[in-house]
Fold this sequence. Notes:
globular, EC 1.17.1.9
Amino acid sequence: MANQIAANFATMGDVDAAAATADHIAMFWDPRMKASVFADLTDLSPIAEQAIMLLRQDPHPSHQTQATEFVAANEVGASDAG
């Protein structure tokens, strides 16, 4: 799933896509999902791997896309799934 998120943001360029992927993972992934990807970087795309490295440095990155900004506005829920 990290690769799919990274591919979605790839048009932003590698650096911005990694930051947006990290933001998305930080905001929307269950702790068990995060633990799983942190434990095994095998088969991650370069953007997804860089996102995980960013999250290891800062588990609460700044928001990069509008999809994550609504949570900061104290709306109910913590998902961009609808």
